[in-house]
From TrEMBL:
Protein's GO biological process: DNA-templated transcription
Name of the molecule in the record: HTH lysR-type domain-containing protein
A GO term, aspect molecular function: DNA-binding transcription factor activity
Domain of life: Bacteria
PROSITE patterns recorded: HTH_LYSR (PS50931)
Recorded family membership: Belongs to the LysR transcriptional regulatory family.
Residue ranges of domain HTH lysR-type in the record: 7-64
Pfam families referenced in this protein's UniProt entry, alphabetically: HTH_1, LysR_substrate
InterPro entries associated with the record: LysR-type_TF_proteobact-type (IPR058163), LysR_HTH_N (IPR000847), LysR_subst-bd (IPR005119), WH-like_DNA-bd_sf (IPR036388), WH_DNA-bd_sf (IPR036390)
Keywords, alphabetical: DNA-binding, Transcription, Transcription regulation
């Protein structure tokens, strides 16, 4: 019992990160620490408890029975601390300080990123800590104050504000656009995502404005899709607010934009009354809705 009373949050946050990531290296990426620090903290925690919390294997780290016993208590401590942090932050009336914002990588060089930058220009006493990641940062654990996401719907204990109902379109290099005819994409390649490699067609292409196009390459990220399309290697389908911002790409001819996902601004209800966070929420909501045609 004496050993347990020595536990503190600095010990447990690394334990939780490893339990969720499955390895010390992945946990290091999520915590901002380096791999050696995460591994050392785990070793110190296990030595303090005189217990092995994870089994090590080539596949990664898995919880032992002792680790599984500790996990819910660590998660409860995390929730309590995050709740206290949100409650205290929610009473902060200063129009100054830092707003922690999470967006996906692809949104940085788009109108979303431009509006965030414009907010800081209009509010010089407020700093933005921007976390660009495809992993959804936790609002409940107070990892960020606000998260902007591109999704059909959102769920969880958070407030979701619709910023824009977005469209997507096919994009290509200008040279490829000049070679296209109004023939449903005959003789044109469309860049694939995760389709089987032995297939030259896909149902989503058949249902698209270019049903006669060929499926070519497998590019699972928007950045690689953009790179190949800019090089003239085929059509790619992108959110309009992203595709329109990419140099070297234009909307492919012979089709209209297609309704797509929704742009959401998410925050925990406890943080809304923090003055600087509320100002950011209002600014982004007003300005993106004002320029909804960009999306």
């Amino acid at each position: 019992m004496d050993r347990l009373t020595q536990l503190n949050w600095d010990d447990l946050k690394f334990f939780l990160a490893i339990a969720r990531a499955g390895s010390a290296r992945k946990a290091a990426h999520g915590t901002g620490a380096n791999h050696a620090t995460v591994a050392r903290r785990l070793t110190l925690l296990e030595e303090m408890l005189d217990a092995r919390l994870f089994d090590r294997s080539q596949q990664g780290l898995t919880l032992t029975r002792m680790g599984e016993t500790l996990l819910p208590y660590a998660e409860r401590m995390e929730r309590e601390l995050a709740g206290a942090s949100r409650a205290i932050s929610g009473q902060d009336t200063r129009i100054a300080g830092t707003v922690h914002v999470s967006i996906p990588y692809f949104m940085v060089n788009t109108p979303v990123g431009e509006h965030i930058a414009a907010f800081t220009a209009d509010n010089p006493e407020i700093q933005i800590a921007l976390q660009a990641s495809n992993q959804l940062a936790s609002l409940q654990r107070h990892e960020v104050d606000v998260s902007i996401r591109y999704a059909k719907e959102v769920a969880g204990d958070m407030v979701g504000t619709v910023l824009a109902h977005c469209q997507k379109a096919f994009y290509c290099a200008p040279g490829l656009a000049k070679r296209m005819a109004d023939n449903g994409g005959q003789g044109i390649d469309i860049l694939g995502w995760n389709e089987p490699h032995d297939e030259s067609d896909a149902e989503w292409i058949k249902a698209s404005p270019f049903p006669n196009a060929n499926l070519r390459h497998r590019l699972a990220e928007g950045a690689s899709q953009t790179l190949f399309a800019t090089a003239g290697l085929g059509l790619c389908i992108l959110p309009c607010f992203y595709g329109d911002a990419q140099p070297g790409l234009i909307r492919a001819p012979y089709h209209d934009p297609i309704p797509d996902r929704t742009l959401w601004l998410l925050y925990h209800k406890d943080i809304r009354d923090t003055a600087r966070v509320g100002l950011f929420i209002d600014y982004m909501t007003t300005n993106i809705r004002k320029h909804s045609s960009d999306f």
